[in-house]
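Hey team,

Filing this mostly as a record. A colleague (T.K.) asked me to run one chain through the structure pipeline before their review meeting, and I want the input and output archived in the tracker in case anyone asks later how it was produced. No errors, nothing strange. Just documentation.

Input sequence:
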Amino acid sequence: MTRVAAWQARIACGDAVGAGFLVTGRRLLTCAHVVRRSEAATVTVTFPHARELGVLSASVVAHGGWAGEVTDPGDVAVLELDRDVPLAPAGFAPPDAAYTEPYPRLVAYGFPEGYDEGTLAECQAVSGQLIAGEWLELVAWQGHGQPLVDGFSGAAATLPDGRVAGMITAAVGSSPDVRKGRMLPPDVLARYWPELGELVPSPGSDDARRRLYALLRRAVAAAGRVGDPNRLYVDAVGAFGPPLPPGGFPSLWAAAAYVQWEVPDPLAVGRFADRLLELLDAETALQAPAAPDGPAPAGTPAAPAWSPVVVEIDHSGAGPDQVTVEVSAYRDGRRRPVGARRLPRTGVRAYVQSRIDEAVAHLAPDADELVTFVLPREWLNEAVAHWECGADDSTPLGCAYPLVVTDRARHHSGRLRHQLRKKWQKLDSGGGVEVHRVECGTRERPPSLRKRLWDGDAGVAGYAAPPAAARQHFEVGLTVPVPVLLWPRTGSPCPAHEDTPCPRTGSAAPAGSGAALEDPPRADAAPADPPCPGTAFLDRLAASVAGVPPAELPRHVLSLRLTADAADEPELHWARDLQLLWDDPRCFPGTTASLHSPVA
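Output structure:
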C-alpha cells in the first residue's frame, strides 16, 4: 500500500511557487524566498493529497531573517492558516538521520514549472558537515530522473519511512550536469523557529523535552517576566559545559534550543526545565493576591533571610587527588556561578580564597551573607572555618562570615530536601530547640539513634566527638531530616575508644541521655575520674545555644568563633573547633543544577 503524506503542500505567493509541509494543525514550514513578496501578494496553500480542502490563505508569522541572497542564512518562513486542517502533521527524524551510514535515500515532493500537481526528486546527503554552519549538501540519488530545481524550495526531504530529515532550500548550479542541492536539517530549522524543537527528537528524555516546551509556553504567558536566558543556560550546562555563544541569547526559546541541540550532556534539557519551573513558581507566588491583614496562617514558612555564597567540592573522576570546585552566589533566588576549576586537593584552599570576595560582591547590598561549603562526606570535618580569607588577610573565614558546611549527597537528595523543608516550617514557629545529644563513647545502636531523632522531631543534634570517632552514628544524623548538626572537629572518645563507656556517663546511663547525675563524693572516696571532654563540650554547647532559633545559629556560631579566636589561649576555648552543619533547602533553590565532572 502506498503511503500518502497528505501534509505536503504547494505554496504560491505572487509569481513564486514552492513547497511546504504541515507541522501543526495550522502551521507550515517553507522557505522565506518562496514568500518574499508576502507583504504585497496573497500567500495561498493547497494540499495535493487533500484537494477537497481547496485553496487556503495563509500569513507569515515567523521569519528566519533571510536577507535576500541565495547564500544568506535563515531562509525559513513559518506560515499560519486561518483555521486548523484535518490532516496529520509531518513527523520528524533526528537531525543526524540524513547522514547516518549508510546514507539513506531522501525524497522531496516539489512543484517545478509544468507540475502543478507535484513531482518527486530523489537525493542523498554528501556528508554530515554543514556548509557555512547552515546547510547539508545534497546530490542526486542517481544520474537520471527529476533533479532539484525551482519549485522544490520548501519541500520536506523525507526518509523511506516518511519522516522529515530536513527542508530543501536551493538547487546548486545552472547546468543539467550539476545535480546538487542544499537543505536545512531539523536542528538548524529549530535555530530559526525554536518552537520546532518540541517536535524533533533529540538526545535525552522525550519527557524532559516535552516538559521544557510546556514550561516555555507558560513563560510566554507570564509576559516575559521570568528568567534571564543566559543565566538559565549557565545553570543548565554547569561550569564545564559549552560557554555562552557570542552575544548570548535573545530569548528563553533560543537558549532552550541551544541547550537541546548544541550541548552534548543529555541531562542538560532536564536541568534547564527544572530551573525554569522554579522561576515560574516563584513568579506565580509573587503575583498571588496579598493575604489579608493579620497573622500568617499556621504552618506558613518564613522566608529564609540568608543569601548564600556556595563552595561546592566533589570528586572529579580524574584521580583520587583531583576534585572539582565551584564557587557561586545566590541572589533573588538565582544561582550566579563565579568560577569553577578542577584541582588537586592541595590547591583548593587558595582557589576558594581567590573567589570568595568575588562571590560576595554578587550579593545584594543589604544581604546577610552565608558562606556554605557543600562537601563530600569525608571532607565534612575539614577545618574550612580556619582557612584564611586570603594571602593578604589572615582573618579566618569563620571569623569573617557566618560559615556552615553541609554534606553534598544530602544537599542533592530529593527526599531529604522535601523532609527538611517541612521540618523548617515547624522550627520557624518556635524559639530555641533542644540539643539531641550523641554522647562520647555511646553504646546506643545506630537504628536506635535514628528512631530517637525521628520520634523526638529533632532540630539540632550535638555530637561529643568528631565524625571519625562515631562514624555510624554520624551518618545517621546525615540521613535523617535534622537541619543542624554540631560537633568538635578535634578530640577522641573518652577513654580513647568508642567501645568503652565514658567514665563520667558510665554504662548504666540511658543511651543518649547525657551525663549521669553523681552522688556527692564521700570523704574517703577515691579520686574522681577526670571530666569527659566530649560530655563537657555538649554541656557547654547546650547552654550556649539554649533559646537561639535554629535559623540564627550561623550568626551565633560566628560570635562563638570570634570569642574563641580572641581568647588568651584560643586553642583551649571549647568552641575553637566547633563545626556547624546547617541545612535549610529554601536558601538553595535549584540544587539540581549542580557540579558535573569534566571527565565523563
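Quick notes for T.K.: The longest helix spans residues 268-287. Confidence is low (pLDDT under 50) at residues 290-303, 496-501, 503-523, 591-600.
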